[in-house]
Amino acid sequence: MADGSVSGADRDESDRRGSSGRGDGGRSGDDRSDSDNGYSDSSDSDNGHDYDDRGYGDGWEELRQQTLRRDNYACTRCGADNQTLQAHHIVPRSAGGPDELENLLTLCRPCHGVIHQHNNAFDDVRDDAPLFPERTAPKPVARLRTPADQCCTRCGAERSDPTELVAWTDVPASDDGRPAPSHVTLCKPCAGLLIKHDPAVEKEALTANHTISVHELTARRTDAPVRPSAFALSQVEIRREPRTLRERVVDDTPLRFLLNHRGVRLALLVAAGYVVLFVVLAL
Q1: Residue from 134, 145, 146 nearest 106 by CA
Q2: What is the 3 state secondary structure string of the chain?
Q3: Which of 64, 116, 152, 261 is least crowded, fewest Cβ atoms below 10 Å from its Cβ?
């Protein structure tokens, strides 16, 4: 990222001023998030904590600046260069992650909150993060804004690859009058099924972190499950017409709850329980 006539030293000093302006003594938000202690910026500052109080040595600030310089003073998840930037440990220090450049990534504070979902120190900014990461985001931070966004709202499948998900942003209100959500995420096969089922869904209402091809989505609709998940929103409760004998006999009937990995495990567990009960009664 070009920085015009601003020198690297000026950028470093500017970043220090921006960090200290948060009231946390210039410390990275990672100091709090890796330990998940939930401290806010102000409480840390008021208590006079510094790097050494949390096990960060004297070289941490220099290492943090090296991380920001390497990442061109931009968030590696969303690309923002106009936010407060922090150094994120890929492997948390609490899990033995080292304070080394290879274990650090630059994140803006909202995106840092996306990675640390359970740290309430980021609750005030987490929703400001973009829904999708940049397509070039490193894998450790390439995730959607919330864990629920990583799952298709029709079939319930979790997708670790953000490029396999599409967000529908023009969701109508449900039939029971409940307000429509701001967006729902769908896997590409289920998104293709939605487009084929409801031609009124416009391409402009579908967003992703890459160019969306309606032809690709509709071509993949046959990969969508025949029936939606039991927890699917009413707006995406769409049934796909079965094409094969298995889909008609199993996937489109209650047998689908039994003839899957979870169903088989449950059946084996029940059978084992009956065997144990029979042995106990026989004794």
Answers
A1: 134
A2: CCCCCCCHHHHHHHHHHHHHCCCCCCCCCHHHHCCCCCCCHHHHHHCCCCHHHHCCCCCHHHHHHHHHHHCCCCCCCCCCCCCCEEEEECCCHHHCCCCCHHHEEEEEHHHHHHHCCCCHHHCCCHHHCCCCCCCCCCHHHCCCCCHHHHECCCCCCECCCHHHEEEECCCCCCCCCCCCCCCEEEEHHHHHHHHHHCCCCCHHHEECCCCCCHHHHHHCHHHCCCCCCCCCCHHHCCCCCCCCHHHHHHHCCHHHHCCCHHHHHHHHHHHHHHHHHHHHHHC
A3: 261
Closest Cα partner for 181 from 131, 138, 225, 112? 131
Could you give the C-alpha distances from 163 to 52, 127, 186, 210, in angstroms and in order?
40, 21, 11, 7
pTM: 0.71
191: phi then psi, degrees, rounded to nearest 5:
-65, -40
- List all residues 6 or more positions away from 161 whose beta carbon is below 8 Å from its beta carbon: none
Q: How far apart (Å, rounded) are the C-alpha atoms in residues 90 and 103?
A: 5
Find the Cα–Cα–Cα–Cα dihedral 18, 24, 28, 29, rounded to 10°. -110
CB atoms within 10 A of CB 150: 18
pLDDT tens-digit profile of 20-43?
333 343 344 444 334 333 333 332
Phi, psi of 87 (to 5 degrees): -95, 125
Bridge partners for 206 per DSSP: 168
